[in-house]
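Retro notes
What went well: the complex prediction finally ran end to end.
Inputs used:
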Amino acid sequence: MAIQPYLGLSAWGETPQQRGAAVLADPLLNKGTAFTDRERDALGLRGLLPPRVFTMDEQVQRSLGAVRRKQDNIEKYIYLTNLQNRNEVLFYRLVVENIEEMVPLIYTPTVGEACLQYGSIYRRPRGLFISLKERGRIAEILRLWPHDGVRLIVVTDGERILGLGDLGALGMGIPVGKLSLYTACAGVHPYYTLPITLDVGTDNESLQQGPFYIGINGHRTRGPAYDEFIEEFVAAVKTVFPKALLQWEDFGNANAFRLLNRYRHRIPSFNDDIQGTASVALAGLFGALQITGATLSSQRILFLGAGEAGTGIADLYVTAARAEGLSEAEAKGRCWFVDTKGLVVKNRGDVLAEHKVPYAHDHPFIPTLAEVVRALKPTALVGVSGTAGGFTREIVESMSALNKRPIIFALSNPTSKAECTAEQAYTWSKGRAVFASGSPFAPVEYEGRRLVPGQGNNIYIFPGVGLGALASEAAEVTDEMFLAAARTLAGLVQPEDLAVGRIYPPLTKIREVSLRIAAAVADVAHRARLARAPHPGDLAEDIRGRMFVPKYRD
Ligand code: NAD
């Protein structure tokens, strides 16, 4: 059985005195003021709690009020982290019932600021820190984790935290936050999740020299010593937690592609920055095509930015277009990239990073995006450059002259780095752009019409993919699974969403979205004979039954 409810009875002590303290200290068991009188007697909690028994709904209201009273987002983050460490079931109930309000507080954008301050707001450890000091002992460290049977690990080495760069050990906020989203959005039981930070040093000297930096000293280790450390880590995970799924998170470009390709067939693993982004962007494209009426294989996609996100999207587009009948060469020929130097082409005169090579076409070099748009006549423009302002008025107007409904995705985060705003895309295209962004934008009124931008948030994809891989015990996480996830997500967009230009379902439906994606992913695993769990018959119902629901157990 993949995801069992946690009983945790072994954690309860022998005497009432031991039991009371142990139960209150265990965030998965603690119900706080909601313990009933009977439970208080049975568990030795009498007197340790104020006498009134509250309902869970009352606790949620109290916590929500406390969050809302905090003046800034980092204070809200600290409150929520403390709640998670004190009463995890209540924390998830609060998040699930207020998902649109809570996600920006427990993840982006607040988590970025929280990572920067992780050293000074650090209160209680969550997750495992494995540094170079533990080289040769990684399996031993993994065995120290108090929960056995870990099924889902999110690991970072802190080199490229969101758009903030190298934060070293302070990056721990990211695996912690991502795993919270797995539980809130897809019902992966928190007992089985493990956040890990691999501390190999940092090249961010000012951060490291700060008084409260929590990681090891020294520059980031690279080369063979780094590779050996990662190799030991993966081998240790396979030994200690043989059923674990590994998500690589926020590694630098040079390592992200390498590690994904080196390990994806050796341990069930994926990289959300590359593959999750690709899937959510492709889902957006599928959604947009429901508006434009064109086919996927007839698109010409121009990317601004040729990093993990951009080439990941192009790779998955190729998988999808091949499934529609294009050859690999034809499909690749439909994806073009502009990076900091201009159009990525063969013979540009510089040494191209490996991940750009498949998309370096035989074409004369063109230096600027505006000229490239005029020359290549793309149907879709995808911004993944991490720099604001890349989609100018001139460019959006060119796209609108070339296409009745130009597809314009400004995916760079945070909002301040988006290539253009929703309002700019709609205004400059005279209301015709099919627009999506990485960070949320408010709906826009344009000539009496209300246009709702889609948010291509990875949260739509990775929790469901992970849940499906866990439920089927998939031996590998394949591109076909991310393609199935994209198709499923696009299939959940309703006509009323499309009518206002929204190409993703509302976030309030996230648990149902994740469930559907999980079932589709598990289906791919079974069909591809990668599933190690027996087929349960009805995949969706089986998975639904395993999802963690944040309510107290009697
Ligand atoms: P990355 O560092 O791997 O790649 C960035 C690329 O952009 C590099 O190729 C770089 O050369 C290029 N670039 C930088 N400035 C440029 C400029 N002025 N003109 C042209 N190219 C430029 O980063 P990434 O992981 O690919 O992420 C890129 C952006 O995409 C980030 O802002 C990130 O927040 C965003 N992103 C969004 C989502 C989402 O919406 N779901 C998911 C992942 C990443």
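What we learned: Confidence is low (pLDDT under 50) at residues 1-11.
What to try next: split runs per interface for comparison.
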